[in-house]
Design goal:
2 copies of one chain form a homodimer. Chain A is α/β, with parallel strands linked by helices. Chain A has 13 helices and 17 strands.
Chain lengths: 479, 479
């Protein structure tokens, strides 16, 4: 067996003298590589059925991992999901339900007025980085952060290293020097810490250079790498030679039709290959957990007059609580535990990573971690792809607008899913086992199920003090 | 002569083909090292009369430079002076008259209520870095920035490189890993970009490592290094061996009595030596301008129950518009132009660096730089220490409170100086030629001069739309 047993790990962490282990054992504490891709859709990689995109390295990782078919981001947009990963809590419990930049300025001209919510992760929250750091881990954040202003950057939340993390949700450009004012309303955005680059250098490649450097320099310390790859978020910019390659491959009938996006996915895949290679090179692949996932569903709107991606067969995309907005790819490779090439169909969510990683690291009983964690450890399924989790429901709350949605909450309960829209209190009910595309609303056909789930959803919102939108008295037709 | 003539420089910048020069000439464009020390008092270095502190490298720089005896920071605190250096404008014209953190929250319990002012340097301002960058310079900021939130960091204001610049005015600690929550109300501050350090590493040394690296990596590009050394600001933390060295040297009667502060000055001095050495090493010392100054007067309050420094013979210190708060050391080394060991007694101010550096770089006529610059080029005095500037007055406006002051404005007009306090509209008048210590208020003895200067001060404030404090109706005794 290539990894330490949980008992051994607990001993190393909690033990000190009494539990002293030989140096060899100390070296074998699990590393974590958490690879969070921005906006990567459920169907964007080969192993999840992409057609245009080529992802040989991700597909290889999948063959060495457990692949989850029903993994959820806790929110349909970036900041809330990222906050849930850091804390194991539902975004609505944290009061962080929309991306940072939009948190304080809800639109005042829609039918309901979304709440003003938190834009920075409070320091009182004990992040996964803080727990691992205190347990002796080297903790590094690379890439997108999006969890608050500069006083809330990764350095204040348990990370030894922050390369590139800011309050912004996306870079101005994916090409060196990674700054400018072209997109995002002319805002002069930049990616800090990458000053010594070469013209033409591509951000995804560069972040990977930095990641590889950390892997090489980490020495004997176990590490937690929290990798917020900016790709495949807008601006949709691929390396020219790759864009050209995919442009030639385009043909009618393919699910994906955006060559620049395909080029971005290609570069992401190369980076995955390089990171796995660096672990292999250092001889630590067999005690490094690799988690590969996305912060929300694929972006189905336009950029540069081209549709970005498609989440087909799922409905809708980023911003929506239909499956296309929240169901994401998830691969977990835990050498010696997860069965290579296994598939898990149990619904899991981004709130689960926190307790899962703590248990993997033997820190489950650690009093420092947050008391009110919403997620649950995935060990029962990681150890057995046919296992079941004890949880029956996964909840979502997005009381905001987006191109794909009006304010909405949802609950996934085994095969069923209910959505409740707050402009008109309408509910929709779907049976995902028979209707993955959410095409057939069963709310009127199964009113008892709808009522039951609505009550559960309402009870959950109350229990975590979820912020709700308010009626807009100035909206045309409002009384 | 080791530098290009101004005509040659103008040609290189403005010229293109018509003014084409051989490669050798192109290589000789002037570099700039702008070394801005935080809170360094007028009397803190050997060349300005320090007794406890030892500064052999700074003293050597002074022997190779022009030393100014009447140089002013444009403000008695950090952010405003720094803004004036970036733009050549008076802080009051920029609406930036107090440090970043205090800009939005004036106290409500004092006799007058200070104005809410700007905390971030507007992007519309054309900084010295932007002009030099557009002219082909490599522009680097290292250390303290303090000119705005993350959307206003050096990367957005013309700098290719930002190492360590944040919205904060001081680091948590001068020791690696440069973060913590001990000072500043428990705020989790950090210095970004310095993650690969060694325990015990000292911030001043580390910033210098980074500066030397930039000098070495700049290649053939001319460079502008804007070095915001955090030292000698609080927290007053010196390297232990140096603190011990100065502790042994303490004796009654010395002007300076703080061994930890002396150790900080010592480390600063070593850094100055290392930077000058790096320029020498690369063979570019003879075409590199070095400017050494401070952002305000020395801090005369306590830290860790010890008085930090003394500006004697000047009155008061940081925060005040008496000389101790705004008169600062200034050394300018312009190889081939400034006369080694020369002394200039002309009053100059931090608003002057912008037009001075532009003229040194041959960019004076450049339309990109700000139209409303308040400073004037110092070339007439740099070329001739006995020269005079055409300006008669230098103005100050600090409508805020500090440990050393209540809201106040001031004007320096040749030998005279008038201060106007806004709580009670009281004025004070000093003749600095005969009363450097500002001990003898001549306002009642020379009412005509007081009236004349008060009118000038008032006219200046109106012309730049200076923000004024307001009466506090809730203050005890207010009607």
């Amino acid at each position: 067996m290539n990894h330490l047993t949980r008992r051994e790990l607990l001993g190393l962490v909690a033990g000190g003298v009494a539990w002293a282990r030989p140096a060899q054992a100390q070296k074998r504490r699990l590393n974590f590589v958490f690879l969070l891709v921005d906006d990567l859709g459920w169907a964007d990689t080969g192993v999840y059925g992409a057609d245009l995109h080529e992802t040989p390295n991700i597909d290889r990782l999948a063959r060495e991992s457990m692949k989850f078919t029903q993994a959820y981001a806790a929110a349909p947009v970036c900041t809330p999901t990222r906050a849930s990963i850091m804390t194991g809590k539902y975004p609505a419990r944290l009061g962080m339900t929309i991306w940072h930049e939009a948190s304080a300025n809800p639109p005042q001209n829609r039918k309901v007025i979304p709440p003003v919510v938190r834009g920075s992760l409070p320091h009182e929250e004990v992040t996964i980085a803080e727990v691992l750091h205190e347990a002796g881990y080297l903790t590094a954040h690379v890439g997108k952060w999006h969890l608050g202003t500069a006083g809330y950057y990764p350095e204040t939340q348990g990370f030894d290293i922050n390369i590139g993390g800011t309050f912004w949700g996306a870079p101005q450009t994916f090409f060196y020097p990674y700054r400018g004012t072209k997109h995002f309303g002319g805002e002069p955005r930049y990616v800090p810490h990458l000053e010594w680059g070469k013209p033409g250098e591509y951000l995804t490649d560069r972040l990977t250079d930095e990641v590889v450097r950390i892997v090489e320099k980490a020495g004997e310390r176990p590490f937690f790498l929290h990798l917020g790859y900016h790709t495949v978020h807008t601006p949709i910019e691929g390396k020219p030679e790759l864009v050209e390659r995919y442009r030639k491959k385009l043909r009618p009938g393919l699910r994906h039709q955006n060559a620049a996006y395909a080029a971005m996915v290609h570069s992401l895949d190369e980076s995955v290959g390089r990171i796995l290679g660096a672990l292999q090179q250092r001889g630590i692949a067999d005690n490094t957990v690799v988690i590969f996932t996305s912060d929300n569903g694929g972006y189905i709107n336009e950029f540069d007059k081209q549709t970005v991606t498609s989440n087909s067969p799922l409905r809708s995309g980023k911003g929506s609580l239909y499956e296309g907005g929240v169901r994401v790819p998830l691969l977990v490779k835990w050498p010696g535990v997860t069965q290579a090439g296994s598939i898990c169909e149990e619904p899991v969510a981004s709130i689960d990573f926190y307790p899962t990683m703590l248990e993997m690291a033997g820190l489950r009983g650690d009093a420092r971690h947050n008391a009110e964690v919403d997620g649950i450890s995935l060990l029962p399924v990681l150890q057995n792809p046919k296992g079941r989790l004890s949880r029956e429901e996964i909840y979502f709350h997005y009381p905001h607008y987006y191109a794909t949605t009006t304010p909405v909450s949802a609950v996934r309960a085994r095969d069923w899913k209910l959505l409740e829209y707050h402009e008109d209190n309408r509910v929709e009910l779907y049976n995902l086992a028979s209707d993955l595309a959410e095409a057939h609303d069963l709310a009127s056909k199964a009113p008892q199920k709808a009522k039951e789930l609505r009550e559960k959803l309402d009870g959950w919102r109350r229990s975590i003090k979820a912020q709700m939108p308010a009626p807009n008295p100035k909206y045309p037709g409002a009384r």
